[in-house]
Amino acid sequence: MDCLIRPWEREDAADLAKALNNQNVQKNLRDGIPYPYTVDDAKEFIRAMLQTDPNQAFSFAIVAEGIVIGSIGAFRKENIHCRTAEIGYYIGEPFWGRGYGTSAVKQVCGRVFETTDIIRIFAEPFAHNAASCRILEKAGFVFEGLMRQNAIKNGIVTDMKLYALLKEDIR
Ligand SMILES: CC(C)(COP(=O)(O)OP(=O)(O)OC[C@H]1O[C@@H](n2cnc3c(N)ncnc32)[C@H](O)[C@@H]1OP(=O)(O)O)[C@@H](O)C(=O)NCCC(=O)NCCS
Q1: Is 12 exposed, middle or buried (0-12, 13-18, 19+ CB in 10 A)?
Q2: What CATH superfamily is the domain 4-122?
Q3: Which residues contact 51 (CB under 8 A, 6 or more apart)?
Q4: Which of 14, 125, 145, 151 gets the highest tally of CB atoms within 10 A of its CB?
């Protein structure tokens, strides 16, 4: 099913906190996100996203079924990688498996390629994160390689997969 992506609004904090206050979501993300994740944490995140440079960060609320169900963002890299962006996303667990993640990734990539000079968007899911790898594949990303022992999450050394989508891939 399709979702809507739109800029963050301050009123989204309660829905955002509900989605992210979940270890099944957080265990697939990078460290540094508080747990429990409170409405105040969500307000701080939204405040930060609303202050980012609009040419560096492309951050959106994912809306479906009348509420904010998740978060997605593409973030421009620096230096020689300045025309590359890294994408990250999550969907609240009650809404998994309905196509929203795939829809959000496709929409954000389309929007970033249409409205910026970015030519490459990449993602680095944990190798065991089959759902994330699958949505990247469904959105047209190419698997570029296995990054062995690239992370330590919850005390376990973990491989990651590198996926990327080029602007020219979707012309
Ligand atoms: C990854 C995530 C965003 C996927 O969102 P979603 O809305 O459930 O994704 P979709 O419904 O669009 O697609 C999920 C696909 O993964 C597949 N899938 C789910 N679990 C799977 C598993 N354990 N093994 C194989 N495939 C799996 C589904 O079958 C579906 O593919 P299909 O359409 O071919 O059947 C969501 O699970 C999530 O937020 N997880 C926690 C945070 C996270 O992992 N973020 C990404 C970090 S890189």
Answers
A1: buried
A2: Gcn5-related N-acetyltransferase (GNAT) (3.40.630.30)
A3: none
A4: 125
Residue 63 · residue 4 · CB < 8 Å = yes
Measured from the CB, is residue 89 less than 6 Å from ligand 1?
yes
Average pLDDT over all residues of the chain = 97
pLDDT in tens, 73-99: 999 999 999 999 999 999 999 999 999
CA of 91 to the centre of ligand 1 (A): 9
- 104's tokens: 């959000």
The helix (run of H) or strand (run of E) holding residue 41 is helix 39-51
- Predicted confidence (pLDDT) per residue in 126-145, tens digit: 999 999 999 999 999 999 99
Q: Which atom of ligand 1 is nearest to the CA of 92?
A: 39
- Under the banding of pLDDT at 50, 70 and 90, the label for residue 171 is low
Q: Is the CB of 27 under 6 A from ligand 1?
A: no
The DSSP secondary-structure symbol of 165 reads E
Query: Are residues 112 and 85 in contact, defined by beta-carbon separation less than 8 angstroms?
Result: yes
Residue 2 is encoded by which pair of tokens? 């399709």
